[in-house]
């Protein structure tokens, strides 16, 4: 699609948002639901225009329009459950899909090294020693071994909460490094995605070949749906920062970074939430001895389906509303 075709298709929607913004700026009362719907649609158009390197006059118009709408929508200081619900149900999944190109790159950077390192460690157990020292390997074997005093040992409530705090700090630290290091032209995010993928794959492959597959897989399958997905999303947001630095277009690099961060921050809000969920599951469910591996596999599979469906479909406008927003309809 050419820039001209893109503009002709969506110009009525942009004009409607401009009109809504003008009304809202002049009056205290306005149609907040309609304004929010238009705002989200134009944010998607802005992301597409930036990804396709459309003319700067178009991206500047959309940036100005979305920033004006953003100020009006969020100036009401709605920080209660309604605002949180909108973030979870609409803003976060839409922001993830707006980063789809960077998400694909981050997924490949994480999963390919994970699979390759896992196969290498499964095929040759000595491969793990290129990444971890002997004491670390022995510790993993002790953690996931069949010894009743090791994997899944009973903990009291205080220990569970201690581990929850540890997992929160560790998970958020990993996610923050994957995101923030993207400012170095995306190289930092790519490195941490590769590093975490190789480490996770090598440990998994080694434990599976050592005969600890059931203990290891039943432990990671449930919280992994949230934790691993969040790591990839953090890396995707970091790659967005790196791209803004490398290809700022007609903006200065600092201005390009600011705009990229403005769109990526919604993804990071969601990532923090997912990492908190992962930490809670890991502390209170994953190592529970009273839950059989079969049940953990079933719940884990359901969590993976839920996460993928949520990110793929949640927050999409209804077909009729989308047709109205884009000016596309069916002749009758």
From TrEMBL:
List keywords of the entry alphabetically: Membrane, Transmembrane, Transmembrane helix
Short name of one Pfam family: SpoIIM
Residue intervals passing through the bilayer: 102-122, 216-239, 259-285, 297-313
Q: What is the lineage of its organism?
A: Bacteria, Pseudomonadati, Pseudomonadota, Betaproteobacteria, Burkholderiales
The protein depicted here goes by the name Stage II sporulation protein M
Organism field: Variovorax rhizosphaerae
Query: Which superkingdom heads the taxonomic lineage of this protein's source?
Result: Bacteria
């Amino acid at each position: 699609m050419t820039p001209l075709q893109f503009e002709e298709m969506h110009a009525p929607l942009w004009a409607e948002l401009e009109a809504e913004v003008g009304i809202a700026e002049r009056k205290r009362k306005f149609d907040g639901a309609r304004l929010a719907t238009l705002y989200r649609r134009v944010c998607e158009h802005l992301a597409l225009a930036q990804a396709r390197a459309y003319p700067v006059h178009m991206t500047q118009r959309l940036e100005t329009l979305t920033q004006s709408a953003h100020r009006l929508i969020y100036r009401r200081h709605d920080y209660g459950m309604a605002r949180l619900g909108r973030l979870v149900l609409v803003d976060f999944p839409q922001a993830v899909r707006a980063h789809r190109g960077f998400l694909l790159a981050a997924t490949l950077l994480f999963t390919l090294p994970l699979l390759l390192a896992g196969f290498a460690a499964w095929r040759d157990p000595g491969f793990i020693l290129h990444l971890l020292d002997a004491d670390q390997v022995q510790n993993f074997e002790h953690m996931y071994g069949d010894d009743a005093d090791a994997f899944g040992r009973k903990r009291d409530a205080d220990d569970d909460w201690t581990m929850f705090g540890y997992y929160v700090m560790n998970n958020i630290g990993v996610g923050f490094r994957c995101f923030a290091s993207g400012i170095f032209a995306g190289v930092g995010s790519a490195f941490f995605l590769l590093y975490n993928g190789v480490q996770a794959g090598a440990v998994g492959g080694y434990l599976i070949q050592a005969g600890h597959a059931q203990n290891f897989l039943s432990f990671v399958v449930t919280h992994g749906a949230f934790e691993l997905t969040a790591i990839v999303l953090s890396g995707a947001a970091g790659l967005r920062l790196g791209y803004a630095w490398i290809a700022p277009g007609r903006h200065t690099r600092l201005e390009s970074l600011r705009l990229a961060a403005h769109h990526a921050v919604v993804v990071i809000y969601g990532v923090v939430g997912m990492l908190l969920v992962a930490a809670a599951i890991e502390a209170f469910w994953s190592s529970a001895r009273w839950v059989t591996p079969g049940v953990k596999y079933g719940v884990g599979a359901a969590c993976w389906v839920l996460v993928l469906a949520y990110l793929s479909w949640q927050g999409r406008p209804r077909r009729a509303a989308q047709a109205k927003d884009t000016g596309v309809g069916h002749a009758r």
